[in-house]
């Protein structure tokens, strides 16, 4: 089996990760790469295809392959995008680990924070998001059991939004979000690779179905160097 294209992929990917090949630059042409690695253009095409699928490059017609900035992930503030949808752009560079999945009743403190009714039953789900081997996001979700029945750990490890929309046939409509910077909690320090950072970026979201029922409250806790929060604004 010819694995040369995998070795070429790993070499180029490593050079992108350590900054030897800078984000925003054009990768060498297929011809130049075939000469560099002393191999056929077909082998180079396989390596480039793998780089594209894993989120290292973007192919542009007539120009070549642009190197992407893999150090940060654009996280849309105004949109409602699941981590699975973001992760699909990164290939196997991203994964999810479920750290907690349990049922609980809403107490006074949780009710004030989430707007769920007192004693309402919710799913509590804590998930760590891993990118390039580093634990960089802790997502803490509280989801109404009444509105979203049948959740299990397997669904949480895959995509809750996909389950809601495709299996339950519900429409996720809108969210209210708050973004702030906090000192890491003991839980953040335990579950995230904070790499010396003394703050985390926290996005608190209340998410609603089409009938305006709130089904989810989320605290998404981010290591600050890995994520760029983006939005689009137009002056009227």
Low-confidence residue ranges: none
Determine the N-to-C terminus distance.
59 Å
Please tell me how large the radius of gyration is.
21 Å
What is the number of E strands? 10
Q: What order do the helices and strands follow?
A: HHHEEEHEHEEHHEHEEE
Spatial strand arrangement across the major sheet: 4-5-6-9-8-7
3D structure, described in words:
With 236 residues, the protein is α+β, with helices and mostly antiparallel strands. Helices cover 28% and strands 34% of the residues. It has helices spanning 4-17, 30-36, 41-53, 83-87, 108-114, 153-158, 160-167, 186-191; strands at 57-60, 64-67, 73-76, 94-105, 121-131, 134-144, 172-182, 200-209, 214-222, 227-230. The strands form three sheets. It has a six-stranded antiparallel sheet. Strands 1-2 form a two-stranded antiparallel ribbon. A two-stranded parallel ribbon has the order 3-10. Helix 2 crosses helix 3. It is elongated. The mean pLDDT is 88.
Task: Annotate the secondary structure layout.
Blueprint lengths: L3 H14 L12 H7 L4 H13 L3 E4 L3 E4 L5 E4 L6 H5 L6 E12 L2 H7 L6 E11 L2 E11 L8 H6 L1 H8 L4 E11 L3 H6 L8 E10 L4 E9 L4 E4 L6
Parallel strand pairs: 3-10
Antiparallel strand pairs: 1-2, 4-5, 5-6, 6-9, 7-8, 8-9
């Amino acid at each position: 089996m010819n694995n040369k294209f995998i070795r070429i992929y790993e070499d180029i990917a490593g050079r992108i990760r350590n900054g030897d090949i800078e984000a925003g630059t054009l990768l060498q042409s297929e011809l130049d790469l075939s000469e560099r690695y002393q191999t056929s253009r077909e082998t180079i095409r396989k390596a480039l295809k793998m780089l594209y699928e894993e989120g290292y490059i973007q192919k542009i017609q007539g120009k070549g392959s642009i190197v992407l900035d893999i150090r940060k992930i654009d996280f849309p503030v105004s949109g409602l995008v699941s981590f699975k949808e973001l992760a699909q752009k990164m290939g196997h560079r991203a994964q999810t680990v479920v750290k907690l999945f349990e049922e609980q009743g809403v107490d006074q403190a949780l009710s004030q924070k989430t707007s769920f009714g007192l004693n309402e039953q919710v799913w509590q789900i804590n998930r760590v998001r891993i990118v390039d081997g580093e634990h960089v996001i802790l997502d803490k979700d509280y989801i109404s059991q009444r509105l979203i029945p049948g959740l299990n750990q397997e669904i949480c490890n895959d995509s809750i939004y996909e389950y809601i929309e495709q299996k339950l046939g519900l429409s996720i409509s809108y969210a209210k979000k708050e973004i702030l910077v906090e000192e890491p909690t003991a839980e953040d320090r335990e579950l995230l690779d904070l790499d010396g950072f003394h703050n985390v970026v926290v996005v608190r979201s209340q998410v609603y179905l089409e009938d305006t029922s709130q089904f989810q409250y989320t605290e998404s806790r981010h290591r600050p160097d890995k994520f760029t929060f983006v939005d689009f604004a137009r002056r009227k």
